[in-house]
Amino acid sequence: MKAFATLLERLAFTNGRNAKMQILRHYLQDTPDPDRGWALAAITGQLELRNIGPALLRRMIAERVDSELFDISYDFVGDLAETIALLWPEPSANRDISLTDAVGVLQSSSRNGQEIAALLDQLDKNSRLAVLKLGTGNLRLGLSARLARTILAQMSDPTLPEIEEIWHALSPPYLDLFAWLAGENAPTPDHQAPFRPVMLSTPTNLEELEKLPIADYQCEWKWDGIRVQLVSDQGVKRVYTRTGDDISAAFPDAIELMDFDGTLDGELLVGREGQIAPFADLQRRLGRKSVSRTMMAEFPAYLRVYDMLIWQGKDWRSEPLSARRAKLDSITFPSPAMDVSPLLSVTTWQDLADLRADPPLSVIEGVMIKNSASRYVGGRPRGPWFKWKRDPMLIDAVLLYAQTGHGKRSGFHSDFTFGVWRDEELVPVGKAYFGFTDEELRQLDKFVRKNTVERFGPVRRLKPELVVEVAFEGLNKSSRHKSGVAMRFPRISRIRWDKPAAEADHLSALEALL
Known about the structure:
The chain has about 525 residues and is an alpha+beta fold. It has helices at about 1-10, 15-30, 35-45, 55-60, 65-75, 80-85, 100-110, 115-120, 125-135, 145-155, 160-165, 175-180, 205-210, 250-255, 280-285, 295-300, 320-330, 350-355, 440-450, 505-510, and strands at about 200-205, 215-225, 225-235, 235-240, 260-270, 275, 300-310, 315, 340, 365-370, 385-390, 395-405, 415-420, 425-430, 450-455, 460, 465-470, 475, 485-490, 490-495.
């Protein structure tokens, strides 16, 4: 466990992709099975544990530490797991246990957490923190699953595409995967209807596009839904997110639409009588383990297909996009709730810019630009596909609350709630925790500490004086928020030290954007 704790610490406090990759590579090479497999699963988000919630953590520490000491410490540290790891009584003689044994405890622990507490009683503070980070699922290492798979390819003969092709059909602790990397036969996938690596795009703008011949590209709308892979394999049907998460159980009506044999790339939306609904409607169904018929009737799934990977036993990924698109256009899907994303008719990049600036529907995020000769390649290859999102919406809002961050930001107030005016009252309209530089973070933290009016644990209520410019991608009506609106992907784009709070925007300005 100490080796895994050291790995987490080094990854968290190491800047630079290559340095992080080298650290993880050394760990995977030097660590025996099955510990390295469990570590790989945790880092890539494939480790399924019985999640340790904040209430359980607080109950466990309350049995060992004075509540006032805990509150003061948590307010300073800002991270619950780290605070508990630091305050937990040191064992008379700590011992090391394997990561495998720790995972076993986390997977089988009872609701009262007695087994977890007994485990923490044996460990030093770094190992305790590693266990708590595992249990809460809050690693935040700055290392993507794709980079981890890239490291595996660097360690062995199988290539990255070969590893990614079967990755989502494997299960931790990946004994057969590591055996394959060592020269044995390739693993046999654990299930049918496997996920295949999704092809992603890179951002662009008009200046960059004008360097390209538009005749070589096809353009289509970028829809505001969830990118999905639709797999129907010998009667087994699954809906995956672009990262390979299986969301089939939450969308049985989408499964019913999949009357085909193959693997398609598309967008999951909510649609009623051919009309695409706002993302907020789709969000009502996300994250559910099951869904009622009433929910499906009120928020019915709609599938919009972009591309074809496999069709009736043939792998189309090596074919050019123009051929894949022609094949898609020849298919008639039996349900009106499933169709192919229409192409845009443009002859110049300025034509596309005009469409992007004034799309026909608010659920359109921007445009996609794809080279007609491109093969379907997993990952984010530079050049074949581009996304050109609409310019973000902007408002000026007043900071109302601040909360300490996590990891490297645990000593700073970095999570902010902001509001706008409704008559003479400021009402919260969103939260943001990124968009500012490290220097601006220090300035914001200094403002918070000097302008705190009231404290609620790690949260501080502020004097309503500082205005920030907030950028966001979309806006929806929301009955769950006092303001009646909910933002999509809000971020602080500028600190308006020059602007008095009285000149911040009013709620009516937001409502006009709906």
